[in-house]
């Protein structure tokens, strides 16, 4: 896929304070979120929540890293997301968090309170001075899972997405690589 010219040539496209980019698996969420940040600044901070628990996940992480390039500074933080945002926020450098859904898995596996961490994250998003773009999977449109753990995961993900969407100034749903703006303005379309 051909890359667009760098934002320095086109002029930066301002980001809202908080943007949530959601969608299903392989919907184009991460690439769309990366493009939003790349079009808005000269550099970005990428907070990655995934850990390489097996070879397949290690390959996914490597693919994401290779695709990003030198524009990005990467911080790997599987649990302490609010703290990572606070600790690494620099003026003029938007933050991309990829992804909230994996973060929930990490919290659940560690026995941490997803609700408490969600509140901490939302409070941080409300207080941060730099734009933050967050990526999350939409997991609630399928069948009801057949076990309590999977149902709890789905419920946590749905509540987190609702809380972040309420705090966000822009919410984008990705479907087959196409962004649908659910909340806020679409910078790609004239108003």
Q: What's the CATH topology label?
A: Rossmann fold
Largest sheet: 7 strands, mixed
Q: Helical percent range? A: 40-55%
| Structure class | alpha/beta
CATH hierarchy class name:
Alpha Beta
CA-based gyration radius: 16 Å
pLDDT < 50 runs, ≥5 residues: 1-9
Give the tally of structural domains: 1
Number of strands: 7
Shape: globular
State the order of secondary-structure elements, H for helix, E for strand.
Answer: HEHEHEHEHHEHEE
Chain-averaged pLDDT: 89
How many DSSP H or I helices? 7
Quickly give the CATH architecture.
Answer: 3-Layer(aba) Sandwich
Alpha-carbon distance between the termini? 28 Å
Q: Approximately what portion of the residues adopt beta-strand conformation?
A: 15-25%
Walk me through the topology.
Elements: H1 7-10, E1 18-23, H2 29-38, E2 44-48, H3 55-68, E3 72-76, H4 81-88, E4 95-98, H5 100-109, H6 114-127, E5 132-137, H7 148-167, E6 170-175, E7 178-183
Parallel strand pairs: 1-5, 1-6, 2-3, 2-4, 4-5
Antiparallel strand pairs: 6-7
Helix pairs in contact: 4-6, 5-7, 6-7
């Amino acid at each position: 896929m051909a890359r667009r010219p760098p934002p320095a040539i086109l002029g930066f496209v301002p980001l809202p304070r908080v943007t949530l980019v959601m969608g299903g698996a392989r919907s184009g969420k991460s690439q769309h979120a990366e493009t939003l940040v790349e079009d808005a600044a000269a550099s970005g901070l990428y907070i990655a929540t995934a850990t390489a628990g097996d070879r397949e996940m290690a390959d996914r992480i490597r693919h994401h890293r290779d695709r990003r390039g030198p524009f990005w500074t990467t911080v790997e933080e599987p649990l302490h997301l609010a703290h990572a945002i606070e600790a690494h926020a620099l003026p003029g450098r938007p933050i991309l968090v990829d992804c909230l859904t994996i973060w929930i898995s990490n919290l659940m596996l560690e026995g941490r309170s997803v609700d408490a961490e969600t509140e901490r994250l939302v409070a941080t998003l409300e207080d941060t001075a730099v734009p933050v773009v967050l990526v999350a999977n939409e997991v609630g449109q399928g069948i009801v899972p057949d076990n309590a753990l999977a149902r709890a995961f789905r419920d946590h993900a749905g509540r987190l997405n609702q809380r972040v969407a309420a705090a966000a100034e822009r919410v984008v749903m990705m479907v087959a690589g196409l962004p649908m703006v659910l909340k806020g303005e679409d910078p790609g379309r004239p108003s």
